Amino acid sequence: MQKFLQRLLSAWIIRMSNKFGSRPNRKRIHAALNKLYKTINTTPGKRGLIFEVAETDKFIILSDQHKGARDYADDFTLAEKNYLKALEYYNQQDFHYINLGDSEELWENLLESVIKHNKDTFEAEKAFISKNHFTKIFGNHDLYWDNDPLAGFNLNRIYGTKIHIYEGAILRMPVGGSKLDIFLTHGHQGDLQSDGNWFSKWFVSTVWAPLQSYLQINPNTPAYSNQLKTAHNALMYSWVATKKNLALITGHTHQPVFASLTHLERIYIKLNKAKKEKNADDLAVLNAELRKLIKEGDKTPRFGKYKPGYFNSGCCCFSDGDMTGIEIENGFIRLIKWSYHRNAIPERILLEEMKVSELLDLNLFNG
């Protein structure tokens, strides 16, 4: 019966999860981001930190591990080896690790269960703390770290030292004769389904988690990154598009976005360029890739002028064990993936990169 229901319901449940998993509201999102960005600037250290970044500084931004109890409702299980290998690599390379929220799945699990089943991952994170290279930002699924009186005590238990929890951070870096702010936050702010909504938490813990565990379904499929931007990501982009010399990095949606575009959207942009240049070779390759990602009859979206200022780190709990993240190093910003590429050994794969200087307002792209 379990196998039958899994085949019957999996595709529908994933569609419904993607469709109704959030209720983004433009006015609320823009107001929340404006307020947080202003608060960090006016009172740094209260809700977030400001890092004055030199070109030699290195940052890795990972979000949405959703560490659980290693049962069938734990989306992080398959990605754990990739996560541990990635943290080992970034610690050795002297990166500052910014954990961008939803690190612990505390809607579905008791904290004690998460601590019990994630000792190795917490130890790997502790390695950054000893270098003062660890910043922990909360999301909606680990909002506990921000609002529970015992949060500080339990963080001390986990990491062996006192650490602060923030809602966001700003990386402020000189670029040419200007300054660029890279604003980081989890991205659930303004989401009516996630922004402190008690009903959503109740539904996930009492309905969704048992159903997911029974049917052994992980909705974070790799194909999710090959779609057009979710409505939530589109609204995040619409906020940063109005700002000058400001980039935004969030998580929350589990959908990787690089320079304001998903993988599918980047293909459409490249295809338009190849058509204008009448490049037959590129057209053949891009059309072949496009056919793998879309259904027959899908309409080609229209792309106007856009700013390459929005990024989403994706997640560390894809159903195939892969994880994605954002690196900032030596004047470049990159979208990377860690995957069990060959012989089930975790491997870092570069997906996209661009110069940070291209994020300044002087550098707009017309698509």
How is the main sheet built?
7 strands, mixed
Strand content is 15-25%
Quaternary structure state of the chains depicted: single chain
How large is the radius of gyration?
20 Å
Residue-averaged pLDDT: 85
Number of helices: 11
Largest sheet, spatial ordering of strands:
5-4-3-2-11-12-13
User: How many runs of DSSP E, i.e. beta strands?
Assistant: 14
Q: Based on helices, strands and strand pairing, what is the structural class?
A: alpha/beta
Features:
11 helices; seven-stranded mixed sheet; five-stranded mixed sheet; alpha/beta; globular; disordered C terminus; 367 residues
Give an overview in words.
With 367 residues, this protein is an alpha/beta fold. 37% of the residues lie in helices and 21% in strands. The protein is built from 11 helices and 14 strands. The strands form 3 sheets. Strands 5-4-3-2-11-12-13 form a 7-stranded mixed sheet, covered by helices on one side. It has a 5-stranded mixed sheet with strand order 1-6-7-8-10, covered by helices on one side. A two-stranded antiparallel sheet has the order 9-14. The chain is globular and about 60 Å long.
Short characterization:
This protein has helices at residues 2-20, 26-42, 80-92, 111-117, 119-129, 144-147, 151-159, 198-215, 231-240, 263-277, 280-293; strands spanning 48-52, 58-62, 96-99, 134-137, 165-166, 168-175, 178-185, 246-250, 305-306, 310-312, 323-329, 332-342, 345-355, 365-366. By secondary structure, the protein is of the alpha/beta class.
